[in-house]
Amino acid sequence: MSNPTAILLVDDEEEFVTTLAERLGIRGFAAEAATSGRQALNKMDGRDFDLVVLDVKMPGMGGLEVMDSIKDRSPDLPVILLTGHGAAGEGRQGMHKGASDYLMKPLDIDELISKIHEALTNKSQ
Predict the structure, then answer these.
(1) How confident is the model at residue 121 (pLDDT cuts 50, 70, 90)?
(2) Does residue 1 or residue 49 have the better pLDDT?
């Protein structure tokens, strides 16, 4: 039996990111939440993740800055960006910098799962 897909969720909205981790867990993913870019990078030091879901707008270290650090460490690690209403430009900018895709909030869980599968399939090709 293969291990569940390990996903790191990064968003400064603690309730959102914890709920999302639970919902992905119910669907068979091993999702772990981080509420800041620094915390996310620290979690990556001790564990291998298959994919990162990363909010663009966060206080302190912003999502694109976090993604740069992630890509420096693990160039092939897929990153899906989350952007708020009206911030699609940052999502597109992130894709130019190496993100697999971006999604707008509020998030549709089925759409996220579809994007996760797509990113992991593209990674393995």
Answers:
(1) very high
(2) 49
Residue in 92, 46, 44 with CA at minimum distance from that of residue 72: 44
Cβ contacts of residue 119 below 8 Å, gap of 6+? 51, 78, 80, 100, 101
Which residues have a Cβ under 8 Å from the Cβ of 95 and sit 6 or more positions away?
81, 101, 102
Domains and CATH numbers, the chain: 6-124 (3.40.50.2300)
Q: What 3-state DSSP class applies to 9?
A: strand
> What is the DSSP code (8-state) at residue 3?
P
Nearest to 37 by CA among 51, 57, 22, 18: 57
In this structure, which amino acid lies at residue 96?
H
pLDDT digits (tens, 9 = 90+) for 53-101: 999 999 999 999 999 999 999 999 999 999 987 777 888 899 999 999 9
| 105-113 long-range Cβ contacts below 8 angstroms, 24+ apart | 107/20, 107/82, 109/20, 109/23, 109/24, 109/27, 112/20, 112/24, 112/53, 112/80, 113/24, 113/27
